[in-house]
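Hi, here's the filled form for the chain we discussed.

Project: internal
Contact: R.S.
Residues: 332
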Amino acid sequence: MLLVQFKQADGSRQVGVLEDDGKKIRVVDGYRSTYALARAAIAKKSSLQDFANAALGSTVVDYAQVAASGGLLAPLDHEDTAHCYVTGTGLTHLGSADGRDAMHKKLDGAGDNLTDSMKMFRMGLEGGKPAAGKIGVQPEWFYKGDGSIVRAAEEPLAMPHFALDGGEEPEIAGLYIIGDNGQPYRLGFAIGNEFSDHVTERQNYLFLAHSKLRVCSVGPALLVGELPAHVQGTSRIRAQDGKVRWEKPFVSGEDNMSHTVSNLEYHHFKYPLFRRPGDVHIHFFGTATLSCSDNITVAPGETFEIDVAAFGPALRNRLSLDDVPHPQVNVL
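And the returned structure, exactly as it came back:
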């Protein structure tokens, strides 16, 4: 099942299920958000898929029209953006270490010495997939922001004026709600563009935290249920005229990762801060493909496109430049 959130021309919100190979959205009656639908399913001790299926109505809308009108929303959000955490893990994919290591390698470092990135990656290879009932090694972890940074499909991704780069990171994200009992409930997964400043990160890996404090995009659909063990898609950069000027396949899913999803989840939700009842969490699981590794610089006006058949319609966002004034600190 693929769930989408969207708004009508009058601004009213709806939730629906994609049908007809993603061409149509069948509306779920009685609920105006994925959050409300999931909370009701938790209260009824029902699976999200069964609960949504039982509430499907007769109204069907055209997906393309919704997308063209700017009506798509992120597949999960919270009405108070401060109650949505956006976080992620890196160096989790079997194809991701080389690009990151090249960025982090010291200019005068000896070739036989492992960088911190490669040490972290090796730790994942050796201990990221523990036996049942065991705790594996913790991954690299980062904070991106709260719900105010999340953009929907077809919305622009704004690069701040002080950024040195605005580059895509095609990833799978887990989408969660914390129940009233303080336990996380995973609704499912969505394709995301984790969008980072790779030039800033390349200067020094300790700038990773700075490079991640950017907007991101998620959606357009939420894949309810378990993540396939092998996920394959394509990441593209489209020029302003719409022509593809860079593209590369990428893979994800546990078959292509050095960590299990459950291990990544444990090391995020082990902190009580991240188990506050009612909160939403969007947690990125890492990437294996970056255009910056092929020396691609994306310009404002060009479009990121992440296309994964298992997740329905592609995630597209145009790069823009956000010229926000410098902050003025006032003394009281």
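Let me know if anything looks off before we file it.
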